[in-house]
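Q: We require from you a single protein entry containing the residue sequence and its fold in token form, and nothing else.
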Amino acid sequence: MKNSDWLTNYDASNETFWQNEGKKIAWKTLTITTIALTMSFATWFLFSVVVIKLPKIGFKFSDNQLFWLAAMPGLAGGLLRILNTFLIPMFGTKKVITVTTFLKIIPLLMLGFAVMDPSSTFGYFMLIAFLLGIGGGDFSSYMPSTSLFFPKKELGTALGVQAGIGNFGVSLVQLLSPLIIGLSIFSFMGGGEIIAETGKTIYLENIAFIYIIPLFLVGIWAWFSLKSIPVVASFKEQMDIFGDKHTWYCTLTYFMTFGTFAGMAAAFPMMIKSLYVPLESDLDPLEFAFYGPLIGSATRVFFGKIADKTGGAILTHITGIALIILFSVLIFGGFLTPTTIDQFPYFVGIVMLIFFFTGIGNAATFKQFPMIFSDSPRKAAGVIGWTAAIAAFGPFVFNVLISTSKSISGDARLFFGLMLFICVFATFINWKFYTKKGCERPS
């Protein structure tokens, strides 16, 4: 092994090498990239908090515009994940992780100054929201990278730890933001916005500026500490994953799990605002928003190790059945068309269960994919990146289609009916090809 940026003789499948050298390298890489990924998710979901506060400090945006602002990072994250799917084989772990970490500083600076300027336009906020999608896009570099460093027997654990702790970034931003906007940390930069209703001053810019120094330090750490495993594959060669039907089946099942997790995380605060705040004006969506992503992230970490023992397919199947039941209860139980605030605790409870089961499914699917494509670690890494890219459209799909559903039918039941159908179809596909006895690719 050469002392350079590239680990030319790395072989995680060799037990002797793994115990003597590989394990230490892999877990060091996982530690750095997981911390970086947590910061990525935090920046990606900033607008789930920002959209709740913008109207309070004088920005005259409609609910439809606010749904679009919450949706735009999801659109960008999905598009950028498609690009990130192919970057690791071309540039390596070190360069990709370092550059994407530094890039996120740019939209954070833009956002911090934008909320301090009452003349900032909706279009400018949309641009910032799109650039914050960088934090969602680079996930499709992190996961393929990690899959190269670990042996198959430990991939469920490794990917569960990385993605699960990374997902904590969503809870971090939704928990930390309400706490720090009351502190005049960056007041020397001219910040401080007045809430018209109460006359209270908040510092909304804090939720952007607070992540800049940590990102800078993590970027330096990544540059000086990370190594890369060479994977010889051009962009054209990597396109071969799209000729395999199982790429598309995996895309569907991961959209059911992570697409739902990310979509609900982004839309949940606005759903509370639009459905239940009219029934109880003192209700603060941000008091409840962080619980769901926290639950989903924790279960993803915990069930990654379980998936290594049970296989991923059965856990994905359980997730699908649970989501079918929970979406049905949301739709037919009246919780999307509430008439009394007494329905709110049940609504929150159902959503928490959705997060719980999507956490299980997220861990299970990422255990499945390397097994489904066990003949080629490079293809498995590509499929992980691609499926993550499509699932990253979850925040965009949820926010835009919830808003569209409301404009068509007056409420969100039409959209959640679509999600119910997707879950039924995805669960059937998972059972037929990966779960039932004698299936094509048991995983």
